[in-house]
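Sequence in, structure out.
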Amino acid sequence: MRSARIRWTQFLVAGALLTIAYFLNYQKDIYEYRYMAVDLTPRNWVEGRPAGEITREFTLSQALDIQETELLERDFGEPFCVNLLMANYANRRNRGSFTVTVTTTEARQQKRIPAETVMDNQYLKVCFDELRFEQLYNKPATLDIAGVDGEPGRSVTAWLSSARDGARARVNGQPTDLTLVHTVVLLKDTRNYQFNAYFLLVFAGLLGGALLTAMRHPDAI
């Protein structure tokens, strides 16, 4: 009786540890599966440079010119997110906030972003759940970044590139020969996929626990 209890405890411990290990290894992939790339062709963002601190006076505007995609037409009704390559000046303590706005001929949505959440030289994902990709694709649309209450020396920035592809950005009302470094992804409803994926993680963990316990106690098989 005591040996059976020991084996059962070892099985539960091994299964739990394996499940946690699988979760830590695959959680990011499971979460990122909800974002579907609009353009699968890698962009060459050459000669990157910062747009300038996004202080309270700062404005940046650029057309979202999406004319080609490998998405199926059935996905055009999904909401979307814009990934913006940002920088926070070597992880200094930034304050304030800024807005990211997408305006189409049919609708407009604005998101306010705390500067302290921006990571250095990483993409910031801003999702527009009230808009749909079909409002963006092959139609006039504009992306705007505007400072709200940022101060000089305590604000973040966005990256621009001299890549030939893409619309040109206007910074503080002035035209530039640069384009905003960004990508657009769909925001898919993948709750069923995530539920199935987590169920498989638990199942794999328990199965691995059973195998490890059986290897430790071959006489009990």
